[in-house]
């Protein structure tokens, strides 16, 4: 079998593993069941991934690498607008809904070292996101870090919620944009925090 065919076969099996994890839950799938579902022996599966956690880590890591690439790609071409950032997140969620579900639901199933590495990727993503959309925020310190965390969570939860609502795509995206832009602009000007003091 040539390299291209092996690679395509591996990607197909990886997608099937992703679907099984998303359907049943990572913790409910044994290595034997996974191998059987993929049409492999357990030994052949172990050849590619030493453990289920390594496969899960690979799938979750890919999500954060894609998120970072989306932000960094826009920075190379031009300064992305918040509208473009929102649209890029919407499109990525539409393309990889199962991976986002795993990243949210099954992160706790990773080893502690893997969780730390994913946490580092998430921090890089949040810092890049903040630099991109709010380069001149009046917020500082913990308030700014909390803002980045909330914005990242909204950007990565709203698409799933709205895409599941059966709204037409354009209407769902417009609703997401409206929700995020209004809240972000007000918060980053510091209005919410200043009025609470």
UniProtKB/TrEMBL annotation:
Entry keyword Transcription regulation: yes
As annotated, the DNA-binding region falls at 30-49
The record's InterPro entries line, in alphabetical order, gives: DNA-bd_HTH_TetR-type_CS, Homeodomain-like_sf, HTH-type_TetR-like_transc_reg, HTH_TetR
GO-annotated molecular function: DNA-binding transcription factor activity; transcription cis-regulatory region binding
Question: Where in this chain does the record put each HTH tetR-type domain?
Answer: 7-67
Q: Which UniProt keywords apply?
A: DNA-binding, Transcription, Transcription regulation
Checking PROSITE patterns in the record gives: HTH_TETR_1, HTH_TETR_2
- Protein name per Swiss-Prot or TrEMBL: TetR family transcriptional regulator
